[in-house]
Amino acid sequence: MEYVYAALLLHKAGKEINEDNVKKVLSAAGVNPDEARVKALVTALSEVNIDEVLKSATAMPAAPTAAAPAAPQPEEKPEAKKEEEKKEEEEKKEAEEALAGLSSLFG
Length: 107
What we know:
Layout: H1 2-13, H2 19-28, H3 35-45, H4 50-59, H5 78-106
Helix pairs in contact: 1-2
């Protein structure tokens, strides 16, 4: 991945993407460049219009669109809400007690 990042950095800086420049960027980042990978990257990118690839990549959605919202749920009775709140409070209290027990192990 660092090889692709090096090529993108060179492209953004307006520098030629060649073996020497890619090696320099990788070395500056603390990566020991692999000659074969550098050569393969430069060869592969020689036929690619990076600007077009970047434009098409940003035009595509990163995540699928959300589904339509579900039909509205009928309102719960106040009694059911109170019971649910009590359950949540009890679960929260139990979780806190369990964490307190764990914290005693670690001091």
